[in-house]
């Protein structure tokens, strides 16, 4: 997965930097459109992105 700063990712996806921060910390949930935009910019399939989410959730339990 490509590495982006929040500012770069915000610009590339047209998603606010503060919203991205809230997504990262789990304070907000993304819409399907947001997930799609992130997957396109990060050059990762939706399935791969969801697998990463599942891994992250498993680490929390």
Walkthrough of the structure:
With 61 residues, the protein is an all-alpha fold. The protein has one domain: 434 Repressor (Amino-terminal Domain), CATH 1.10.260. Helix content is 69%, strand content 0%. It is built from four helices and no strands. The mean pLDDT is 90.
CATH architectural grouping? Orthogonal Bundle
> What is the CATH C-level name?
Mainly Alpha
Radius of gyration: 11 Å
The count of strands amounts to 0
What is the CATH fold-level name?
Answer: 434 Repressor (Amino-terminal Domain)
Shape: globular
> Strand-residue fraction?
under 5%
Oligomerization state: single chain
Low-confidence stretches: none
Overall mean pLDDT stands at 90
Q: Specify the structural class.
A: mainly alpha
Helicity, in percent? 55-70%
Helical stretch count? 4
The first-to-last residue Cα distance is 24 Å
Q: What is the helix/strand order? A: HHHH
């Amino acid at each position: 997965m490509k590495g982006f700063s929040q500012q770069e990712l915000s610009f590339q996806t047209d998603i606010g930097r503060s919203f991205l921060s809230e997504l990262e910390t789990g304070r907000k949930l993304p819409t399907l459109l947001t997930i799609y935009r992130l997957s396109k910019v990060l050059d990762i399939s939706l399935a791969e992105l969801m697998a990463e989410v599942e891994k992250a959730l498993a680490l929390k339990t």
